[in-house]
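Quick question, first post here. What does this chain look like in 3D?
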Amino acid sequence: MAGRAGAVVAALWLLVRPVAAHVRYVSDEEGGPTGLDFIVDVLSDPLNAVLLGGGAVATLVVALAYLQFRPARADLAVLRETLSGYRDLIPWMLRLSLGLPLVGAGFAGYFFSPEVTWSVRVFQVAIGFFLLFGLATRAVAAVGLLAYLAALPFAPDLLLAFEYVPGFIAILLLGGGRPSADQMLNQVAQTPGTIYGRFDPIHRLANWFNGVVEPYERYAPTVVRAGLGIAFAYLGIVEKLLAPGTGLAVVEKYDLTAVVPVDAGLWVLGAGLTELALGVALFVGIFTRGGAAVAFLMFTLTLFGLPDDPVLAHVTLYGMVSMLFITGSGPLAVDNWLREPAQDAEAPGSEGVAADD
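> Answer (accepted):
Ran it through. Tokens below.
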């Protein structure tokens, strides 16, 4: 895992810039060439073409070299085993990564995304606190998901916060986990002789639903991985490649060309293509943990490189890529076809964990 993550991070380092992620959160300026015209304009400079092409080739070479030699096998085996011990904390991690920004969004006066300034404070704060406490977790996640989907046709800018969709679905699959109010109350309800157990029928319904959902829990990493892949691809295409004016304004606003002296257009094009490539890689499930590490790096660079970028808008993304770092790609991923023969004999329940290390 660490070897693959390090290899991919090193290969993509020159293409990953603080201008990546939600540039519209820090600039509203538009204009300039768009789409294919923008790409042709940037690549018409031979130096830009060489830098961009060289980065792509270097990434491919590093990935193929890793698959051929697979270094540090013993180290990776220990790390996989260590990470597998954190899997029971994933529901708690997801609840925090959705609950905290929802509470913050409610008090800040926006609806999921800072671009949608609807004041629904009580609703979002309530959803957020219920998730944080882990009370009626699956029902609350369903309400949050339906609210997002119902509002989407009226506020397309909600696509900037698309990560909430796989996040809510993953919580529906996994439940509240532990520590949570659901787990605590269920334990009391199932203990013979308790007053709560005699009068509360909810836990029986919850246990029945848990049994229905349990066979599909293994797909939670797949849902998160595919959802994040869509989110990254959308940001790369729509925010950078098709509408580079905002990204160019961010580069100028923070004088990013003084940090790395390359053409401003290359900054935006590199960020857009990196997000698109990362999105596709996550969606198909190749080098998943490496992709999660790159995504984590992108968020961190954005937060430190763009000081007025809203931190809460990235908390959900941080939590979800951290989940993928623990679980790996999950089922239905290219990583599972690339696994080494020795990894096929791993313990039950580790599916998807070893395949993408």
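The radius of gyration is 22 Å.
Residues 56 and 327 are 27 Å apart (CA to CA).
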